[in-house]
Amino acid sequence: xxxxxxxxxxxxxxxxxxxxxxxxxxxxxxxxxxxxxxxxxxxxxxxxxxxxxxxxxxxxxxxxxxxxxxxxxxxxxxxxxxxxxxxxxxxxxxxxxxxxxxxxxxxxxxxxxxxxxxxxxxxxxxxxxxxxxxxxxxxxxxxxxxxxxxxxxxxxxxxxxxxxxxxxxxxxxxxxxxxxxxxxxxxxxxxxxxxxxxxxxxxxxxxxxxxxxxxxxxxxxxxxxxxxxxxxxxxxxxxxxxxxxxxxxxxxxxxxxxxxxxxxxxxxxxxxxxxxxxxxxxxxxxxxxxxxxxxxxxxxxxxxxxxxxxxxxxxxxxxxxxxxxxxxxxxxxxxxxxxxxxxxxxxxxxxxxxxxxxxxxxxxxxxxxxxxxxxxxxxxxxxxxxxxxxxxxxxxxxxxxxxxxxxxxxxxxxxxxxxxxxxxxxxxxxxxxxxxxxxxxxxxxxxxxxxxxxxxxxxxxxxxxxxxxxxxxxxxxxxxxxxxxxxxxxxxxxxxxxxxxxxxxxxxxxxxxxxxxxxxxxxxxxxxxxxxxxxxxxxxxxxxxxxxxxxxxxxxxxxxxxxxxxxxxxxxxxxxxxxxxxxxxxxxxxxxxxxxxxxxxxxxxxxxxxxxxxxxxxxxxxxxxxxxxxxxxxxxxxxxxxxxxxxxxxxxxxxxxxxxxxxxxxxxxxxxxxxxxxxxxx
Length: 682
Ligand code: DGJ
Fold this sequence. Notes:
By secondary structure, this protein is an alpha+beta fold.
């Protein structure tokens, strides 16, 4: 059970796994003392002595000991020389902030964050610490929650101007602390794991693109040099936010099982409730199958073929509206293209459903093409700086979602599309980052607020739509996984992980993604070969094994498959559905990293350890091969497990301590996928 203990000047947030301890220093400065494995109690003397605080608790600001004190919400300018979490410009032009604790309340419930995504309020203990800067009148409420079931603490900061003058907040961050791990990349190579020693000075990761972005994931982790997947200390912080961010390193600690801690936190307390634990339809998306080149009959034929294989949902991707035969036009004109689809969305939806398969659709609601009726009618609806030329990317501009009229337009367009088509799934795409950032409705001094106001607008739109269409499965997308973050996952239970569907590249992308996000959130599809992004030919078996690592589907034209592949598609869909609960909602353990060797391996284990599914992919074939032995993880050491594919039985202890010898076929991208079932001891 999570508890908030108040022991003298200490605030101790604790559950069965972790402790997070803060201390009010003389004068009210808030020190951060500990974040790690659960403690019964903490005598702060050791940690404070290191920071130059005398045994009686006194310290001297003149000697700059603030600089050595681990502070919970630090600021620069009054003795602390490090980068602060908060910078505020006061009316006198000064920027120093001196926050002191004025009161603390243990709350009955974690307060919601109006207009912003956040982990929910059930199953946690909550604390509010009220801080104030007397000089400016600035008040900061730090809200904490510690959950019963996760090794995680959440924190938000609410800033209120309690003074007379105008305060300008120029920096308001949430901060933390050996070796630094970040996830970064680019298009088709999202969330690669980067681990490097922590050195003096600033280091971290950020985005100024208007989205959390393909290049950077709003997550940072600090681990001991000897920490690995099985053991060691690790501290991680992820922002529940989808826009611009900075995640920078500072100094402290935490316990391991970080990824599973995040997975549980998001599953139990963030993702849309009605989709957690619920089966996700196996889908077939039309994009790589036909791109913009389709008509009604073609789509219905693809859907019919997919239905024969047992696929449950057919998704029409880009190209169905305006006169969009390529990506140069029509975003914003969400009327159907009657040349391609003469019966409109209704007839197409009905015909697809008549094949025994559900219908889903693609939209990119946040964008407008310069060649569109929408843009011609409302050029000021696009983000722009007056007097400067618009800069397009993928021939498109970004709508100004900070505006209410734009928000209403988007809600109307999506509502009409879903109602007309009867779609039970919507892929919400967003394919460019911001430039020319400016809003026609804001005065000059407020223009810098645009990126954040945009995010508030986006969240408001999402909130309205997911409320209005609770049974529609929304899948996020941003040129692949360009905005795959905990902010969006509050609204959409799954996210298209990457435009890169090459099995070997996907091993890396999915491996990195699972550092923070659970398998259920990763849209993951089998595509045709040669792969459209890399040109590589990999066996169907490997493409299937890798796509099974996430929310499963296909991204191809089933009519172009060989008879053999069509048969395996039927078997695959049945296997994917049968194992879905285990794959998506089981406890995930990474076993071999594609960033470190020629192998990628992971295992998903049922919470009661009665079954598991294990996957291994070897990237490159090597001559004179010795089959790899992989030590499994997460099993019950006392149970015996039947490997269904081979009929062999091994003890859980043996599989974890001695390992499983995996026979792989010759050739690149060789894979095995094995299901394990606990059996009575023989
Ligand atoms: C980018 C997405 O990542 C693709 O899957 C596809 O939907 C295209 N956009 C369509 O334009």
